[in-house]
Each structure stands twice: as C-alpha cells, then as structure tokens.
C-alpha cells in the first residue's frame, strides 16, 4: 500500500512539472514571453526583445484596450508612459461595435482583425512611430510572429 502511495505521489509531482505554464514576465524555454489574459480570453507571445515589457488595461463601454509597452531611450518620443514606447495595442470590440467600424461609422482601418469569439472581435494595432533605439530590433518578422501567435481561448 505504501509503495502504491509513493508511486502515485511521484507520478503526480513529475506530471505537474511537465505541464508548468511559463510566467508572463520570464522568458519561456522557447526564448519568448507568453502573455495570457484569461478574463479577456486570449493569449499572445512576444519576442525576447520585449524584455521588461509592461501592460496596461483600459476599459470603455464599446471596447477594452490592452496596451503593451517596452523600454526606450528615444527622448523625442512622446508617450503615455515616460521611458516606454507602445509597440502593440490589442483592442477587443463588442461584435456590434466592430460591425459599426466596418460600416464606416468609426475609423478603424489601423486595426488588424485577429478573430472573433463570444460577441467579441479581437484586433491588433502596432506602433505608428518606431523609436530610434528600436529601428534595428523591430522588423516585419517580429510583427508577423506576434500576429501568428495570437490565440483566442
């Protein structure tokens, strides 16, 4: 009986270690940052260049904005958060409000639609001006990697 209990305990410990979720603020084994938002029903993966990234959520009646900031040394960049630039904004519209955008009532051409689920439309927008210290680091491959990693839960 003790032997079965001991084997069961070891199996549980081994199994729980195999399915460990990466911390959002630590590089995962694949060298990227895995961000998940269970409340809003999505996850996204950021490249290792996003070290020290920060998030901010803004709630509005028509949509929710998740903003992602990365450190920058560009002193000419005017931002909401001093010392940080905003490379990514995920905006989650109600499906009704997204339909209004498509009808032209709200200008939404800068947002890329990522998908829909449960009356929500998920979109993404990338920075309008890349900071000087990011011009060497930012490229279309990083941008496409972020888009491709987006998953609606």
Quick structural summary:
The protein has 153 residues and is an alpha+beta fold. The chain contains three helices and eight strands, in the order αβββββαββαβ.
Description:
This protein is of the alpha+beta class and 153 residues long. It has one domain (22-152). It has 3 helices and 8 strands; from the N terminus they run αβββββαββαβ. The strands form 2 sheets. Strands 3-4-5-7-6 form a 5-stranded antiparallel beta sheet. Strands 1-2-8 form a 3-stranded antiparallel beta sheet. It is globular and about 40 Å long.
How would you describe this structure in keywords?
alpha+beta, 153 residues, 8 strands, 3-stranded antiparallel β-sheet, globular, 5-stranded antiparallel β-sheet, 3 helices, 23% helix
What topology emerges from the helices and strands here?
Blueprint: H1 2-18, E1 33-37, E2 42-46, E3 54-59, E4 63-71, E5 84-94, H2 95-102, E6 112-117, E7 120-126, H3 140-149, E8 151-152
Antiparallel strand pairs: 1-2, 2-8, 3-4, 4-5, 5-7, 6-7
Fraction of helical residues: 10-25%
Count of helical stretches:
3
Shape: globular
Largest sheet data: 5 strands, antiparallel
Please indicate the percent range of residues in DSSP E strands (runs of 2 or more).
Answer: 25-35%
Q: How many β-strands, per DSSP?
A: 8
Find the structural class using helix and strand composition: alpha+beta
Question: Strand order within the widest sheet?
Answer: 3-4-5-7-6
Distance between the termini: 41 Å
Low-confidence stretches: 16-20
Our count of domains comes out at 1
Query: Can you write the helix and strand succession as a string?
Result: HEEEEEHEEHE
Compute the CA-based radius of gyration: 19 Å
Overall pLDDT level: 84
